[in-house]
Design brief:
Structural class of chain A: alpha+beta
Strand content of chain B: 15-25%
Oligomer: heterodimer
Number of helices of chain B: 16
Shape of chain A: globular
Low-confidence stretches of chain B: 1-20
Largest sheet of chain B: 6 strands, mixed
Structural class of chain B: alpha+beta
Number of strands of chain B: 11
Low-confidence stretches of chain A: 1-19
Mean pLDDT of chain B: 88
Shape of chain B: globular
Mean pLDDT of chain A: 88
Helix content of chain B: 40-55%
Helix content of chain A: 25-40%
Distance between the termini of chain B: 60 Å
Strand content of chain A: 25-35%
Distance between the termini of chain A: 99 Å
Number of strands of chain A: 25
Largest interface: A-B, 68 and 76 residues
């Protein structure tokens, strides 16, 4: 009866509304907040300790199984990077299936299967459940870890590492982690070439045998499956899995800086600075300040309406985007505010970051800001519930962080209960505005001095290690560096005796063999350079008779006077011998770190303004790097004596134009041989 | 070991044909002004998506004013008589929502995803857009700059970004599909404010729109709210322009070279497709999956893994109302001649045409299609879009429940047949994308 009456009422209301004049001048008010029903996860535990969560959702005939291992973070030390290989190694083949068979069988049922060092997960249509579980169990229990797979992955990883050395974002993240946590902390250490090379198949196997244990695992099952069926299949596939003793680790809590300071990586080629204003924070999911810190961060730098975005992008135009985060983590969390800004506004941008953080803590937030942040976070919480996996995540977190059973069920109530005073108190508790480290990756020559106003500036290298304090001897000059170089390779007389040279090098880029040939004829002012693939000339440069030309795949182009001047700078086998004679100016720009070696930086400029930069090792005097804004950086190594002169047999070229560093080895080198017209062209 | 795999394949065949789809329930009605409304109730999560599909895309444009439809997608966020400039997004976000829009050659689609107690707001906002959006010089000038940036970011500054416009230009000689939705900046610069206002009057009318609401809703209350906000919007005064142009069948291959800001050459092939609602569309979609969908697909396995001639290959059926294009592209591996890559691609096409596909591969295709169709309806936003397209493009909202049946009817022979019929080497477009540095100096 009551229901019927209600129905009539609704109809009356509905009809009434239809005929009412719509007042379009005001935004419609929000209706009563809907009840957010969060599905329940059912749980059970196997005798071997595997904890299972089942979230039944029959909306679609799909099912997913996600296995997560909960272990303490590991300090990998001289094997840093080991854990990044585990997932792909698990997928590298099993006792029953080669990698190709595994790929084909997964594709065949339209399923997905993936693994990492702390997870294995599958998803598919319900009707393929048996098959994906069989594949999942095969990957989990029978991996064979083929050596060639590890070799391939290590090679890919080394290529990846090489690219991260040129990536300012990657350098910034390594730097921040290193200064916040130190290199002897799982979150502070970094994978290097050496630690990657140290990783062996035994390490992979030992990791697998130690950590892939049911007693530290959670299995989340989501989709068209009920608890009874879940129990049956989990017992069938994971019941015989043996327990094991898994080591635990503790680490000292990182301490904040005593006062504000700047950590700088000098990257002379940068046109932008990557700024990260950061400090560690003890914060994990479920802490008293956890939810209020979400609101606080949303206001400071959580999106395109936040204070940082409005100030640094909308108002000042320093950057494409400025954001902040307050990360929660079981071990230690991080507060971070960051942006990439134009070099010339680096100090102004840091000033605004420091101002916004201090202002937030000192003056607090407004009611309007808080209301908006609540609406944004509640909206995104509500939307996330559409994915059944969210409920499984809630159940997982509830177990992992020992949360009250109704933590997520009452999440929105808790969110909405916060007042301005609460948020301001949270800000004061979590943030210490005068104890931030400001990490910056950018052009030191342009920004270092200006950053000194924010605290002591300490320099780091691209791997996050403290930069060696390099100072050139007071009496060192560019002329002396060049003289030392000529002496180091055999002396001016020996060098002058070499009139012509033909050099051929081989290189390999992603499986393609390249040949690079150089011809030098200093007496006649001639120079030729060719790059060939499989005997076909792809690109060449020719200088002769005071003219220069470049050609790419057969299409030739005359050089402009400016290009010619620059090309001529490079056209000598030993340009150091002729800089003076040709009227170039040479300037010493201090002692720098080149791949761990102290080296003098010498800038050479022509009258027309073309510039290039060479680095000469402090100890040997040899030229170890050549920097050219157009063609990239070339590193020289493996010097060997030819005709009484030392010449580099190994060249490594890094350029934004090529995806991976090109490593070239000299295959033939002829000195003082006749050079013909044909050699040059 | 081999035996076990074979056995599982046999088991795979037994489960054919495809399972029935989970049925999507819906209710629909049409207002007197012609606005078609579709509602789908799903109370599992207290969110609701509100979308409006305007049946206008770049194909409805004046050839001298290309880019208008897409430009309107931007202009329609400028505000209305009651919504201040720039406030549209802010209002939705501060009520806990998110929103977006896109424009294709056939349609323009807007949607808001909000907590379900904000349905009133969403309907109000969309009705404001339909009733009296701001189409003035300030908005036009602002959005011209934004579209310029978008063009830079997505086409000019993006390696291979011009593939679609360059392909369409050559795949169609008469049909307005010959220009891409981004259109011409010159046309947008030349247009007067009156022309923009006229476009709004011509196409942003209720009789050219489909309103779809999906999620945590009550059918009766929702219908009442829709009537409240949308009934007063006047119907368009003249029939909506829809081009009735048949693209003639090409009799010769069109071949060209594009010099772009790229390092690695690419080969593009395009074959004209039948109308989107043509029965062969299903087999063509399966064909594209057979060729390049997934690690174990024919071309990926052969050209990327084994021969390593390509870094990546992809076959994408760009399905359009009046007949789109089957677009294939391959990016050559370092040092591989594009001609060499094209020859290998052609060999594999010929292989499908001559030999068809194996039973095993056919089963795999059906499994993948089934997974995709089921997953396509996993969110209310996805369901709303599928419902609106079913109504507008296929003329039948219940089409959403018939897609799986349509795929079930495709046979192994159909896939070979459509490969032969549509992948016609004499009527195709072939483009080579080469680095600008390779461009002859004389050009």
């Amino acid at each position: 009866m009551k229901k019927f009456a209600l129905g009539i009422l609704v109809m009356l209301l509905a009809t009434g509304i239809t005929f009412a004049q719509v007042d379009r001048s005001k935004l419609p008010a929000s209706g009563p907040a809907p009840e957010i029903k969060i599905g329940e996860a059912e749980t059970f535990t196997l005798a071997n300790g595997l904890k299972v969560f089942v979230v039944k959702n029959t909306k679609l005939p799909r099912v997913s199984f996600t296995l997560v291992f909960e272990r303490d973070p590991i300090l990998e030390g001289d094997k840093a990077g080991l854990t990044t290989f585990i997932g792909d190694m698990m997928m590298g083949g099993t006792k029953n299936r080669t990698k190709d068979q595994l790929d084909q069988e997964i594709d065949f049922i339209g399923a997905s299967l993936s693994a990492s060092a702390t997870s294995v997960s599958v998803s598919s249509l319900k009707k393929h459940q048996g098959k994906v579980l069989e594949l999942m169990a095969d990957v989990l229990f029978n991996p064979v870890f083929p050596q060639p797979e590890l070799d391939k992955l290590k090679k890919q990883s080394l290529t990846g590492l090489a690219t991260t050395k040129d990536d300012p974002q990657a350098i910034s993240s390594r730097l921040s982690r290193a200064v916040l946590y130190g290199k002897n902390h799982p979150y502070g250490e970094s994978q290097t070439e050496q630690t990657t090379k140290n990783i062996t198949l035994d390490d992979v196997k030992a990791y697998y045998q130690t950590y892939f244990k049911p007693n530290i695992a959670y299995l989340a099952i989501v989709g068209d499956i009920d608890k009874a069926e879940a129990q049956k299949v989990v017992n069938q596939y994971f019941g015989a899995w043996k327990k094991g003793v898994v080591p635990t680790f503790t680490y000292p809590m990182p301490v904040r800086a005593a006062k504000q300071a700047v950590a700088l990586v000098d990257r002379s080629s940068s046109v932008q600075s990557v700024i990260d204003v950061t400090q560690p924070v003890a914060m994990k999911i479920g802490d008293a300040d956890y939810i209020s810190s979400r609101l606080l961060n949303q206001i400071l730098g959580g999106g395109s309406a936040s204070r940082l975005f409005m100030n640094l992008r909308e108002d000042k135009g320093f950057t494409y985007g400025a954001y902040s985060s307050i990360d929660a983590d079981k071990l230690v969390g991080t507060i971070s505010a960051s942006a990439s800004v134009r070099s010339e506004v680096t100090d102004s941008a840091v000033y605004e970051f420091v101002y916004e953080i201090k202002n937030l803590v000192d003056k607090g937030v407004t009611q309007e800001e808080l209301d908006k942040a609540k609406a944004e976070l509640a909206g995104s919480f509500g939307r996330s519930l559409e994915q059944p996996g969210t409920v499984a995540n809630f159940a997982l977190n509830t177990a992992r962080y020992n949360l009250p059973k109704d933590y997520y069920a009452t999440y929105l109530q808790k969110l909405n209960a916060y007042t301005v005073a609460d948020i301001n108190a949270t800000a004061k508790r979590l943030i210490e505005p005068d104890k931030f480290i400001i990490t910056t990756v950018g052009n030191g020559a342009e920004i270092k001095e200006k950053l000194a106003q924010f605290g002591e500036v300490v320099e780091y290298d691209i791997m996050g290690e403290p930069a060696k304090q390099l100072v050139a001897e007071a009496d060192m000059t560019a002329e002396k560096v060049l003289e030392n170089y000529l002496n180091a390779i055999g002396g001016a007389t020996q060098v002058a005796a070499i009139q012509t040279a033909k050099i051929s090098m081989d290189a390999n880029v992603m499986g393609t063999a390249l040949t690079i040939a150089f011809v030098y004829d200093s007496q006649n002012g001639r120079y030729g350079q060719k790059l060939s693939i499989a005997g076909n000339v792809m690109q060449k440069t020719t200088l002769a008779n005071g003219k220069g030309s470049m050609s790419v795949q057969g299409n030739s182009m005359e050089m402009t006077p400016a290009q010619l001047a620059e090309a001529q700078l490079n056209s000598y086998l030993f340009p150091e011998a002729v800089y003076k004679a040709n009227g170039y100016t040479v300037t010493l720009d201090g002692l720098k770190d080149v791949d761990g070696k102290p080296a003098y930086k010498v800038v050479i400029a022509t009258a027309s303004g073309a510039k290039l930069t060479n680095y000469y090792a402090q100890d040997s005097g040899l030229k170890i790097k050549y920097e050219n804004p157009a063609s990239g950086d070339t590193y020289y190594g493996d010097y060997q004596a030819k005709n009484g002169v030392l010449l580099p047999m190994s060249w490594t070229i890094k350029s934004p134009q090529i995806p991976v560093p090109l490593e070239a080895k000299v295959t033939s080198l002829e000195l003082n041989v006749p050079v013909t017209e044909g050699d040059i062209n | 070991m081999k035996k076990i795999i074979l056995l599982s394949l046999l088991l795979g065949w037994i489960i054919l044909p495809l399972a029935a789809q989970t049925k999507i329930e819906f209710k629909e009605f049409t207002l007197d002004n012609g606005l078609h409304v579709i509602m789908h109730q799903d109370n599992t999560t207290p969110i609701v998506v509100t979308s409006v599909l305007y049946h206008v895309g770049s194909k409805n444009e004046n050839p001298e004013r290309t880019g208008f439809a897409h430009f309107f997608e931007h202009l329609m966020f400028e505000g209305s008589e009651n919504i201040d400039r720039g406030q549209y997004m802010n209002i939705i976000q501060s009520r806990g929502g998110t929103l977006n829009a896109y424009t294709s050659n056939d349609i323009t689609y807007y949607y808001e995803l909000l907590p379900s107690n904000e349905l009133d707001l969403a309907l109000y906002m969309e009705s404001e857009r339909m009733l009296h959006s701001k189409v003035d010089m300030t908005g036009v000038e602002t959005q011209r700059e934004v579209v310029k940036e978008e063009r830079r970011q997505r086409y000019e500054n993006q390696p291979y970004g011009t593939i679609l416009p360059e392909t369409l230009k050559r795949a169609y000689t008469t049909h307005p599909y010959q220009w891409a939705p981004i259109g011409s900046m010159d046309h947008l610069n030349a247009a007067t404010i009156e022309e923009f206002q006229q476009f709004y009057k011509d196409f942003y009318v209720p009789n050219n729109a489909t309103l779809t609401i999906a999620g945590d809703l009550d059918y009766a209350k929702t219908e009442a709210m829709v009537r409240k906000y949308f009934s007063e919007i006047p119907k368009g005064t003249k029939p909506v322009y829809r081009p009735k142009i048949t693209e003639p069948k090409k009799t010769a291959e069109v071949r060209d070279i594009i010099y772009d800001n790229i390092q690695i050459p690419a080969v593009i092939q395009a074959y004209n497709l039948p109308a989107r609602n043509h029965p062969d569309s299903y087999a063509l979609s399966m064909l594209s999956t057979y060729l390049t969908g997934g690690k174990s697909s024919l071309m990926t396995k052969e050209l990327v893994d084994k021969q390593q001639k390509a870094l990546v290959v992809a076959a994408i059926p760009l399905e359009l109302e009046d007949g789109g294009v089957f677009l294939m592209y391959g990016i050559a591996n370092m040092g591989v001649d594009p001609k060499d890559l094209e020859t290998e691609v052609d060999k594999l096409i010929k292989q499908v045409q001559d030999q068809g596909i194996s039973d095993e591969e056919f089963t795999k295709l059906k499994n993948i299609m089934e997974n995709n169709i089921v997953s396509g309806n996993s969110t209310v936003a996805g369901v709303a879009e599928n419902l609106a397209e079913a109504k507008v493009i296929f003329g039948n909202t219940n089409y959403v429940n018939q897609v799986m049946d349509a795929y079930s009817k495709v046979t192994k022979e159909d896939i070979q047949r459509v490969a032969k019929t549509y992948m016609d080497l004499t009527g195709r477009v072939v483009l080579y994308y080469l680095p600008k540095s390779a461009k002859p100096v004389s050009e």
